Amino acid sequence: MPELPIGEAVEKFTQFLQDHLGGAFDVFAAVLMKLVGAVYTVLVAPHPLLLIAVFAALAWLAGRRVPLVVFTVLAFLLVASMRLWVQTMQTLAVVLVAAVIAVAIGVPLGVWAARSSRVSMVIRPVLDFMQTLPVFVYLIPAVFLFGIGVVPGVVATTAFAVPPAVRLTQLGIRQVDAEVVEAAVAFGSRPWQVLREVQLPLALPSIMAGINQVIMMALSMVVIAGMVGAQGLGSVVVQSVTQLDIGKGFEGGLAVVILAIYLDRLTSAAGARDLTRGRARRRAARSDAPARHDRVRESVTTA
Amino acid sequence: MTGESPREGTVIEAKGLTKVYGMPRDKAVSALRQADERRRDAIREAGGFLAVDDVGFSVSAGEIFVIMGLSGSGKSTVLRMLNRLVEPTSGSLRIDGADLAALPQDELRRLRNRKINMVFQHFALLPHRTVRENAAYGLKVRQTPVKERMERADWALRRVGLEQWADSYPHELSGGMKQRVGLARALATDAEILLMDEPFSALDPLIRRDMQELLLQLQSEDRRTIVFVTHDLNEAMRIGDRIMVMRDGRVVQCATANEIVSAPADDYVTEFVADVDRSRVLTAGNVLRPPLVTARCGESPAEVLNRLENVEMNGIFVLDEAGRILGVATDEALAGALRDGGATIESCLAGDYHAVSPDTPIVEFCDMAGRHTVPIAVVDADRRLLGVAPRAAILAALAAPKKVRHA
User: Who has the most CB within 10 Å: A4, A43, A297, B211?
Assistant: First the structure.
């Protein structure tokens, strides 16, 4: 059996990147650092109670459901009273930045893959690879290229969170009724008009599901990123594991769970909002529908 | 319906349209060079599918041209080649004399937006836009100012009877109403040519009739050129000026509804025709016979009565010099006149007959057959007698010519 030095090759490649593009990576790391820092500053600047109010307001806007609002208030009060507020906000900052970057990369890629089966064919195995590679493996080159701290955490988190955005965007656009797309073309739309006015709006529920998945993936990764020195709930968990501190570990874990549930409900409620709005209107329409139907029939027969 | 088709000028002219799916164009074109009967097999062997094979037709301005066939006959593909939603593999297509294949993309989009619009089988409305916005879609693509666009959309919705629904969303409408929006969307752009891809097939029969009537009514108002695809021959006969019957990608027959029913090109068409309501398609002209006997004014009652007895009939049309019907003389009236002596035939005339024009569908007069002593008279615009429609001829025409049986 011939030995294939794949590991060696990857090592050499990473070394090559560091030697020749080290400057670029430094700049990139600095920008990312600033970005996370800015988000973090915004999150910790107001009093926790004020921010909890904002979270609750967002929850209300997304779903207009009281239980979600109540949960949001109670859960974040719990986080604050566990003295994990700052760490939770650090984690949230990393998740937000990583998710935004992942969506910014993933959605256009998904659109591209939906429009070209060749692109889709190339992208698919890459996505499979990215999703199934053990998450720790991302951390090693990230640390190598960006050093210890929050930046490799964000990079690894982003890399891990991109696939669902690509997949669900592609799926959503492919599922758009072909006849509706055809109609847009038949009325003289340009390809980008078809995309903007027909495909993207109709694929929105699927894309929103993708964004929800991105955030969940990012959150699951961000804890692991604590191992490379990213501040936040990850480092709380990692520290308590090394110190065998059951209580602290549980508190850290609980804060992660609260953040996860909140972000999940928030994004999925926002994704489903269009549907529920439509349903409500349909119900309203049904109540006076018979009369209006008759009117239409009438105007036709008299015409 | 089956009246004279306007022929003011050819709008669409298709020659040798052919579409091969599933293989590269150059390969398909070389496979198509095979002899006529071998090309289908040649394409199949090469892994392709010959969807449309050498289809040619022309459509005149203001005509409703129906393409009819079962699923897989290539009718929808032909329709989509008319606005290049499907690119023909070979063949030429001219719209108002301009070669469609030579149009660059932006010209093609302009043509689709301004000249050729389309109505779809499953309505193809944008679910996230209101009915008004849907109706205005073509104008939005055209970048018409919002206010004008919405006014035009409201106008189009009024024409299809949906003005009260302008602010609703498509999912709140029934199927027939959705297709009215589809129609309004095409009306709003004021395109001269309308491509309709089985527009009423997804609707239930009563609504379908309503929609057919609406289409005919709209058509009587603006005379667009319409290419209409359907698999329903009754629908084709109802609305089509001419009908092109397709099978396996080829044209089987292209003729008026009347010609198709009275002279189907082959067994395939005959079988289709078997299900058609013949009384609505066939007209008095199809059952026209020369009258056995007629009388002229000025003839003596004795002479006429004698002629009637020879053919064993009870009544006779009396015509003037120009051949116009003056009235009917029954044998009783003639005999009475003879008894009184010296009376002219004019004194025996009565109005007991029914006259129709040659293009009147049989359904409109078959109940009158046999009511009078004379058969139904078929007359021209000047009421000159062209011939008669005897009851036996009407019954023979309504009976299907022959039943094609398949094991």
Answer: B211
Asked if B179 reaches chain A (Cβ–Cβ under 8 Å), the answer is no
| Of the partner residues B126, B174, B214, the one whose CB lies closest to the CB of residue A300 | B214
With 0-12 / 13-18 / 19 or more C-beta atoms within 10 angstroms meaning exposed / middle / buried, residue B49 is: middle
Taking the mean position of all CA atoms in its chain, how far away is CA A119? 22
Q: Which pLDDT value is given to residue B56?
A: 93
- Compute φ and ψ for B232, nearest 5 degrees: -110, 110
In angstroms, the separation between the Cα of residue A23 and the nearest Cα of chain B is 45
DSSP string of B228-256, one letter each residue? EEES-HHHHHHH-SEEEEEETTEEEEEE-
Digit-coded pLDDT (tens) for A199-237: 999 998 898 888 888 888 888 887 788 888 778 888 888
Instruction: Calculate mean pLDDT across residues A79-93.
Output: 90
pLDDT of residue B350: 82
- B10-115+191-276 and B285-396, same CATH topology: no
Write down the domain spans for chain B: 10-115+191-276, 285-396
Mean of pLDDT values over A276-290: 44
Q: How far is CA A212 from CA A102, A209, A247, A269, in A?
A: 12, 5, 30, 10
Domain positions in chain A are: 13-45+82-269
Superfamily of domain B285-396: CBS-domain (3.10.580.10)
Q: Per residue in A123-181, pLDDT tens? A: 999 988 888 888 778 788 788 778 788 888 888 888 888 999 999 999 999 999 989 99
Q: A285 and B172: CB-CB below 8 Å?
A: yes
pLDDT digits (tens, 9 = 90+) for B103-116: 999 999 999 999 99
CATH number for region A13-45+82-269:
1.10.3720.10
Report, as an integer, the average pLDDT of A107-129.
Answer: 91
A274 to B120: CB separation less than 8 angstroms, yes or no: no
* Polymer length in residues for chain B: 407
- Please report, for residues A120, A123, A272, B163, B215, the alpha-carbon distance to residue A114 in angstroms, rounded to integers and kept in the order given: 7, 11, 23, 37, 38
Query: Is B210 in Cβ contact with A300 (below 8 Å)?
Result: yes
d(Cα A170, Cα A110) in Å, to the nearest integer? Answer: 4
Low-confidence ranges of chain B (pLDDT < 50): 1-7, 403-407
Residue with tokens 């929808």: B76
Locate B40 and state its tokens. Answer: 């289908």
Predicted confidence (pLDDT) per residue in A237-276, tens digit? 888 888 988 899 899 989 999 999 999 988 888 776 654 4
Question: Residue A185: which of B85, B121, B195 has the nearest Cβ?
Answer: B85
From B228, B248, B384, B243, select the one nearest B320 (Cα to Cα).
Answer: B384
Q: How far is A298 from chain B (nearest CA, A)?
A: 9
Half-sphere exposure of residue A176, counting CA atoms within 13 Å on the CB side?
A: 33
Per the CB < 8 Å rule, is A189 touching B83? no
Q: What's the CATH architecture for B10-115+191-276?
A: 3-Layer(aba) Sandwich (3.40)
Cα-atom radius of gyration of chain A, to the nearest Å?
A: 24
